[in-house]
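Hey, quick one: can you model this chain's 3D structure?
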Amino acid sequence: MEQVALEAQRRAEVGKGPARRLRKKDVVPGVAYGLDKETMPIAVARDELEATLRTEQGLNVLLNLRIEGVEVEKDTAAIVKEVQRHPVSRAPLSVDFQWISLTQAITVTVPIRIEGESPGVIEGGVVDQIMHEIQVQCLPTNIPDHFVADITGMEINDTLHVETLDVPADVEILADPSDALVSIAPPITDEDLETRVEEELLEGLEEVPLEEEELALAEGEEEAAEEGAAAEEAEEESE
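Sure thing. Here's the predicted structure for all 239 residues.
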């Protein structure tokens, strides 16, 4: 996996105020840490960061993080450890970079893509992707872009498992081989949908227990009503 260059600048100021001012200039505040290096406040241009995250590798992209005045060892790279985004606009608010050694294995999450044509789907079945990503351990330069879950030939009620993935010899899957990846579920009929909705509604209805005073009042009103009815019957008989 080739490294992608990303320019960064050291931040002289930290805190919410300076961070807000950077964001107004389309600059994302962040930090770089790892490999026993001192945590360093930095900032990167928003458009350059977004372009980096749109590569085939996504968050697993290997970065040649260039920080003015900072020398980086030849066998060292950086990865994006975390991106905090605005809940509405999804614009990056901050980013954490981690220094890693290219000679030491790391644990990362790799996405799973579904490919192929399933006879079960043609017959009306529904693809149920149970795992969308999977953890692996390998050298940073050997991180796969993605894994393929091939549903070719799968019939309704068939299930594909982790052990069917085509995994390079230098990559270790950390999931159980018997874990389910994807299955072809039977078609959902209108009746099934109505039943499911009814069940969800019933599950959402919870009985609210009466407090002791409310319960006693209700019992008293019931007894009074019974006594009143008995009195009316007795009065009618006496007439």
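One thing worth noting: The chain has a mean pLDDT of 85.
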